[in-house]
């Protein structure tokens, strides 16, 4: 008994020591900030979970402006953080510069492709999930109008918008979909007042449901929806708890799982560079159904959403991807 | 009919967007008319927004939040006064220093107290200033014309919006019709003669800064308790500087300054509505163009129509009683 205990303890200690020697995770967040209740916070949750599971400390940094990106990555690499996870497509050019200087360090980036031998690029097929929540939104709208508020006007966000539009049209070919982008600079991720005004302008034109893909700006969008008694759809993390009763669902982009997997594969020694694409099939994308929104999701909506998921996973339905194929086919 | 509704909606949004600008511009008016440059409007608004949101989050009362917001803003105004009235420091430097201080301090305190990355917790409805529906607004809503005007445009704003618009005639009255206002303007135009007439210039300037603090406090509270539901880092987003521009635009007079604020608010509201809309003959307007529009129009108006703005004569000059 005693021997067993000692052995277990020794195993625990040694595994801890090995782990600490092998991975020293670092996370650099995007401009929306670590606690945006959405994209960055999802990554944080994944990293914190990994830290709790394996007793490995991780370092993190929130950039305040674009010029800090290179510096933040370089700092972490120089201090020996490994692997380093860059959150957001806006790190692509910074990582392009830094990665070759630290060939021994493993980097990962979410939402962009950086073609370097020591970088893993993680992409999500957001159009698939947006398609599904588009179906749900269209079915929840009685008057036939729904809206979308994006953050910065970039192809990635257009991909959300296009998937959503196609999903809504799939459920109701006559539906009107209003689309707005908050801005064209990084500040567009962090402007809830403008987000709320954009949402109000859509409600005034008759929109009953609004889907946001706008980081912290989206909190203003969802707040406006709750204030106006309309429905909001959250993004990235499960945001249903923000305004129970006014949150139709959330489009889940499991960045937490992706972050966890980056560190865990490094710990297992199975980390590989290259491109990983996560979608409905890999459970990297999904939609949220929990106690906060179950009253709003009718059995028909659930059936339609599940059917769409099944068809996409089975390859019977291909959702147009704005980023690779350009120009959304529907208007 | 469609276009009338659209117009009413844009004007409605104009009122919401220009209310904090008007309050901040009036705040600047009091300070600058008394001879003190106030670059720090931005910082005072931000400080008030943070104090209001933090207090409302802890107490659950918007009134406590409003009081805290005004207190924070008045405190900052007094610091400004201490630096540049009592110690005759450079007014621009002091203002800029306050802006930088508040921008950093609010984020640091936010992280320390609420651990949400410098944000305060999302406030529930009862801790905020919610839209006030005027009596009969619902009944009139379906009446063409009148319903839109009364139901949408006049009714359905929150308390601080109404205060902002009532504050304009109030400020004009104080400035032009009371003894305090006359002396305040004298302190800004020609402090030596005011002093000769037996008026304590520094005391007067301090009192002007108190007015500034209160108005800025209202503006900041509006940002975090009415327009949104909580404080977000740097949420004033340059509104203090826009208000300052509006004040200069309005030649340091309350009513013209209000119209300048309304113009800025209107341009922003139009920019938001125009996004993704089809303009006849042009097609869909690019987002970038729409967003640049307010700035382009500002430059055009400033260059072509407004003419020379003459500041109060003693603006920026610390008053020295004797050499």
Short description:
Chain A is of the alpha/beta class.
Relevant terms:
heterodimer, A: about 325 residues, alpha/beta, Rossmann fold, 2 domains, six-stranded parallel sheet, six-stranded mixed sheet, 12 strands, about 20% strand, globular, B: about 325 residues, mainly alpha, ABC transporter involved in vitamin B12 uptake, BtuC, 13 helices, about 70% helix
Ordered list of secondary-structure elements with their pairings:
The complex is a heterodimer of chains A (331) and B (323).
Chain A: H1 2-22, E1 26-29, H2 39-54, E2 59-62, H3 68-78, E3 84-87, H4 92-98, E4 107-110, E5 119-124, H5 126-140, E6 145-152, H6 155-171, E7 176-183, H7 192-204, E8 209-213, H8 217-228, E9 231-236, E10 247-253, H9 255-268, E11 274-278, E12 285-287, H10 299-314, H11 322-325
Parallel strand pairs in A: 1-2, 1-3, 3-4, 4-5, 5-11, 6-7, 6-8, 8-9, 9-10
Antiparallel strand pairs in A: 10-12
Chain B: H1 2-33, H2 41-59, H3 62-86, H4 91-114, H5 137-140, H6 146-154, H7 159-177, H8 179-189, H9 191-196, H10 201-227, H11 239-249, H12 254-274, E1 278-279, E2 283-284, H13 287-306
Antiparallel strand pairs in B: 1-2
Order of helices and strands of chain A: HEHEHEHEEHEHEHEHEEHEEHH
Q: Overall pLDDT of chain B, averaged?
A: 87
Number of helices of chain B: 13
Q: What is the fold named in CATH at topology level of chain B?
A: ABC transporter involved in vitamin B12 uptake, BtuC
Name of the CATH superfamily of the largest domain in chain A: Response regulator
Q: Any guess at the CATH architecture of the largest domain in chain A?
A: 3-Layer(aba) Sandwich
Q: Low-confidence runs of chain B (pLDDT<50, min 5 residues)?
A: none
Low-confidence stretches of chain A: 9-21
What string, H for helix and E for strand, traces the elements of chain B in order? HHHHHHHHHHHHEEH
Cα-to-Cα separation, first versus last residue of chain A: 71 Å
Whole-number tally of structural domains of chain A: 2
Helix/strand/pairing category of chain A: alpha/beta
What CATH first level of chain B would be assigned? Mainly Alpha
For the largest beta-sheet of chain A, the strand count, sense and barrel status come to: 6 strands, parallel
The rounded Rg of chain B comes to 21 Å
| Overall pLDDT score of chain A | 88
User: Major sheet of chain B: size, sense and barrel closure?
Assistant: 2 strands, antiparallel
> Using DSSP, what is the number of strands of chain B?
2
Regarding quaternary structure, what we see is heterodimer
Give, in spatial order, the strands making up the sheet with the most strands of chain B.
1-2
């Amino acid at each position: 008994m005693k021997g067993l205990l000692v052995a277990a303890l020794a195993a625990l200690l040694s595994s801890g020591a090995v782990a600490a020697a092998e991975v020293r995770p670092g996370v650099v967040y995007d401009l929306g900030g670590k606690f945006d209740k959405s994209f960055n916070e999802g990554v944080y949750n994944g990293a914190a979970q990994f830290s709790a599971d394996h007793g490995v400390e991780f370092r993190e940094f929130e950039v305040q402006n674009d010029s800090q990106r290179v510096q933040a990555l370089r700092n972490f690499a120089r201090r020996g953080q490994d692997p380093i996870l860059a959150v957001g497509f806006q790190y692509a050019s910074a990582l392009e510069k830094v990665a070759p200087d630290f060939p021994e360090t493993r980097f990962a980036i979410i939402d962009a492709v950086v073609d370097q031998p020591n970088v893993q690029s993680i992409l999500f097929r957001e159009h698939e999930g947006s398609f599904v929540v588009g179906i749900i939104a269209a079915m929840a709208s009685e008057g036939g109008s729904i809206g979308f508020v994006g953050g910065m006007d970039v192809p990635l966000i257009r991909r959300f918008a296009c998937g959503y539009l196609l999903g809504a049209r799939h459920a109701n070919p006559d539906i009107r979909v209003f689309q707005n982008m908050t801005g064209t600079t990084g500040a567009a991720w962090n402007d809830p007042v403008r987000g709320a005004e954009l949402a109000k302008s859509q409600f005034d034109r008759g929109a009953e449901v609004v889907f946001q893909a706008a980081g912290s700006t989206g909190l203003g969008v969802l707040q406006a929806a709750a204030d106006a008694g309309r429905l909001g759809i959250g993004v990235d993390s499960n945001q249903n708890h923000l305004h129970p009763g006014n949150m139709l669902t959330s489009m889940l982009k499991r960045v937490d799982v992706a972050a966890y997997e980056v560190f865990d594969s490094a710990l297992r020694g199975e980390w590989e560079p290259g491109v990983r694409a996560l979608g409905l099939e890999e459970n990297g994308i999904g939609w949220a159904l929990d106690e906060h929104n179950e009253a709003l999701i009718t059995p028909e909506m659930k059936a339609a959403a599940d059917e769409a998921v099944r068809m996409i996973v089975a390859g019977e339905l291909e959702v147009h991807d704005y980023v690779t194929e350009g120009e959304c086919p529907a208007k | 009919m469609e276009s009338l509704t659209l117009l009413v909606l844009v004007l409605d949004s104009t009122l919401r967007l220009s209310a904090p600008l008007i309050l901040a511009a009036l705040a600047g008016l009091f300070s600058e008319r008394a001879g003190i440059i106030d670059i720090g409007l931005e910082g005072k608004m931000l400080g008030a927004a943070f104090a209001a949101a933090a207090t409302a989050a802890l107490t659950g009362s918007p009134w406590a939040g409003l009081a805290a917001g005004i207190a924070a803003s008045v405190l900052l105004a007094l610091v400004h006064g201490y630096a540049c009235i009592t110690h005759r420091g450079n007014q621009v430097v002091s203002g800029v220093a306050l802006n930088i201080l508040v921008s950093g301090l609010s984020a640091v305190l936010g992280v320390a107290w609420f651990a949400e990355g410098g944000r305060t917790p999302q406030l529930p409805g009862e801790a905020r200033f919610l839209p006030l529906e005027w009596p009969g607004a619902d009944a009139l809503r379906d009446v063409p014309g009148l319903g839109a005007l009364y139901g949408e445009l006049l009714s359905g704003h929150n308390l601080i919006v109404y205060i902002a618009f009532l504050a304009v005639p109030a400020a004009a009255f104080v400035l032009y019709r009371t003894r305090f206002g006359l002396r305040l303007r004298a302190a800004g135009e020609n402090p030596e003669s005011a002093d000769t007439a037996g008026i304590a210039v520094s005391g007067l300037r301090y009192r002007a800064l108190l007015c500034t603090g209160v108005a800025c406090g209202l503006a900041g509270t509006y940002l975090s308790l009415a327009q949104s539901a909580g404080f977000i880092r740097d949420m004033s987003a340059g509104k203090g500087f826009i208000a300052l521009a509006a004040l200069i635009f309005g030649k340091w007079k309350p009513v013209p300054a209000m119209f300048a604020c309304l113009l800025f608010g209107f341009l922003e509201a139009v920019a938001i509505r125009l996004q993704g809309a089809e303009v006849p003959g042009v097609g869909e307007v690019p987002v970038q163009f729409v967003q640049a529009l307010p700035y382009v129009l500002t430059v055009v108006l400033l260059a072509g129509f407004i003419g020379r703005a003459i500041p109060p004569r003693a603006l920026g000059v610390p008053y020295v009683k004797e050499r």
